[in-house]
Amino acid sequence: MIEAPHQAYVVSMANLHTTAASLAAEGKGILAADESIKTMSSRLEKVGVEGTEANRRDYRELLLTTPGLSQWVAGIILCDETLRQQTADGTPFPQRAASLGIQAGIKVDIGTTALPFTDDETVTQGLDGLAERLAEYRDLGATFAKWRAVLQPGASPRACWANAHALARYAAMCQAVGLVPIVEPEVLMDGGHDIEACRTTTAAILTATFAELDQAGVDPAGVVLKPNMVIAGTTAVTSSPPDEVARHTVAVLREKVPAQVPSIAFLSGGQSNERACANLTEINRQATQVDVPWRLTFSFGRALVDDALRTWAGRSEQVTAAQQALAANCARASAAAQGRDEAGV
Asked: What's the topology of domain 3-337?
């Protein structure tokens, strides 16, 4: 009476390990196309496209059906709306993704709210009813999920631990229903802070996150970590060259991330494709020198798709050109995930 549930859980965890590892197969990363309805509509409107459900669907289908995408992308993160939509041929998005060799994931947090007794800090919401939503998303075809925590450089211990606790509860619920959790503790790149401030806060949130994951019983071998790179703020007096970004990033990861985590998929955080890929290339090169245990790859959003969105701008005759722009950005990111630049060096 006791053994069957335990055996089922063990099998489930084995599947999670396989899924987590496959999301970071060599040379592959994760495409973030999970903007909320409001955010995606706003981005469409900025390029002259009405923010309708149909246009949001057409844009996401353009991304997913880019020829050769599975060469560079193992998974695509969607929002609730897209996961429930169908592509033009009537196939549900998760099933179409699977047919193309790409796993479908789902963003499950519902944004941030003010964290009491802090100075304008936030905590991410969405835990209420999450277990039921996750089970439904799994049945719709998702194999992984994502939850984003947002912190400012210099974040207070209260903000770090509150967000880490929410990430851990989310991750435990994911694994309990058979989904791989992408754990995303993001230290924002906006602002004039120096690289040391980013490093200090990144170290603090990673410490809190893995402590809370452990307390929640989360298996680190069934997790994908999606952190920021350690980098100076976008308006800092002194910018961070790739070798400096890599040195600080690799050092923090070696200090704070358990070896059992199979992969680390960096967010782009508003960087251009060229800059994010230059940093990722150098991170991989330096990581190789110290023999880190994880695969280091990408989970970029805007750094992959912005060129495609601008090129398409709602025009059917521009679909091919937009897909070519996306493919070029994905190919560059894939090379970076292998420690190579565009020329293959």
From this structure: TIM Barrel (3.20.20)
